[in-house]
Amino acid sequence: MLLFELADKLKGTLTGGGQKTVTGVNTIQDATDSHLCFLTSAKHAKSLSSSRAAAVLVDKPLADCPIPQMVVDNVNKALIAAMEMFAPKLTAFSGIHPTAVIEPTAAVDKTAVIGPQAYISHSVKIGAGTVIGAGCTIGENTVVGMRCRLDSNVVVYHNCQIGNFCIIQANSTIGSTGFGYSFIEGQHRLIPHNGGVILEDGVEIGANSCVDRAKFGNTIIGAGTKIDNLVQIGHNVHIGKLCLMAGQSGIAGSTVIGNGVAMGGQSGISDNKVVGDGAMICVKSAVTEDIPAGQAMLGMPPQEMRRELKCVAIYQRLPELAKEVKQLQQKVEQLESAKNH
Q1: Catalytic residue list contains 97
Q2: Dist. CA 42–CA 56, nearest whole Å
Q3: What mean pLDDT comes out for the span 24-41?
């Protein structure tokens, strides 16, 4: 579309270049003369001098900007809207594919889409506008709400509840048996997990992630929570609303996570812990104690983030500090050995 048309759709104010044709969005460095680029930090503004972009998204006008500017209230919001406009238009299937297997007792809304080789088990309910991708399996008595998207090869076990507007990316598993064993008569005996999983509205789960079912009751993931790829959620975990979990993070069984908690990549929480609202668990941190609300934690075991960063800075200076201590020790020994103090 023309640049002025895009500005109108994004509710932006355009300075110059309105007749340029825009075909996509790209970074400042990689944009061509038909791309819109974006500036989310002023420190990158100097890069615009070498950019070939048709225009740049900004939240306030820049002085001496060499390319047209599109000023919007929120760059990230406008960027998402623009990327959605220029997203690849993929071929979509509709209806129920002839290779899908749907049990007679399942209730599938007439507007739902069931892909090739999918299996919908007994007494399953699938809501309006939901898309079940190729090769998915939906277990007995599971409910999937409206306008959900389950990508290829997702498995949702029996007695699970998926809310509305949820996204589960390819190869993820919801409702698998949790890792709970008792050592009885010389062997590890699996404890039955008879509970289920509840994903509330707007939950998104990345590819190759697992959410284990509860022993009793339900494993619960709160509304609006977003989970990255390769994440493990243990049995009977309760995660609050609007949380973020980065890749390769994990939560052990029966832990309770508050609302708005963020977990960095490869971080973990041991079982039966409580993490308060708004807490932040930084990358590679291993939580073994309860975390109060609003606290940012870093390290193994985790400490308050600012304190841990100071400790890391000191650790990196240990060779120099050791040398200084040795020099001071020698000086003290010389002073103490002198005849005239």
Answers
A1: no
A2: 12
A3: 93
